[in-house]
Amino acid sequence: KEVGLLDADIYGPSVPKMMNLKGNPELTPKNLMRPLKNYGIACMSMGFLIEETAPVVWRGLMVMSAVEKLLRQVDWGQLDYLVIDMPPGTGDVQLSVSQNIPITGAVIISTPQDVALLDARKGAEMFRKVHVPVLGLIQNMSVFQCPKCKHETHIFGADGVRDLAETLGLDILGDIPLHVNIREACDSGQPVVISQPQSDAAKAYLKIAKEIVRRLPVPPA
């Protein structure tokens, strides 16, 4: 499948580092930006348009304008899926995206502790208000396994996201463990599904991806 990844976190773009991409997008003859590509995925991010250490100090209207440009003024080509990575919360970015393009479904990601669940719940309720189907929730950093003794510790709580999913009448799409390999892979720009495809961490991501695709409507032929 052809997949695009749009980094809609204008204030803190992380896709360039996590996908090991640098540089400015080229322009097509029609003055559209060409996404940068790695691991077979076309990526677009505010991080390609500003210096890596430069802060984005913008008000809401400028943020919404930037999101619009990243959506509309990019030559995405023929994609099967466009994944939009949004920042936490229910602010300008989420409203701009949900009001400007038809979204097939939203996925809510949260760690299990109560403080994070407050934002996760607001996010789910917001998508419902703007008539975007919520495909399910993902429990991130669900468990830590000691590499020496293999003892498992629920650092952020055991079942917070599961309890929230039950309250909202939603499904859990999967659990992602708290593992040093995931952190190292993200920081080095080598996704764990590429660098360690047989690891338990990679299998957790692949299982979630399959669950998401399974819940999406079949596109017309």
UniProtKB/TrEMBL annotation:
One of its GO terms (biological process) is mitochondrial respiratory chain complex I assembly. Keywords: 4Fe-4S, ATP-binding, Iron, Iron-sulfur, Metal-binding, Mitochondrion, Nucleotide-binding, Transit peptide. GO terms for cellular component: mitochondrial matrix. It comes from the Eukaryota. InterPro entries: Mrp-like_CS, Mrp/NBP35_ATP-bd, NUBPL-like, P-loop_NTPase, YlxH/NBP35. The lineage of its organism: Eukaryota, Metazoa, Chordata, Craniata, Vertebrata. This is Iron-sulfur cluster transfer protein NUBPL. It comes from Glareola pratincola. Signal peptide: none annotated. Iron-sulfur cluster transfer protein involved in the assembly of the mitochondrial membrane respiratory chain NADH dehydrogenase (Complex I). May deliver one or more Fe-S clusters to complex I subunits. It is found in: Mitochondrion. Its main location: mitochondrion. GO terms for molecular function: 4 iron, 4 sulfur cluster binding; ATP binding; ATP-dependent FeS chaperone activity; metal ion binding.
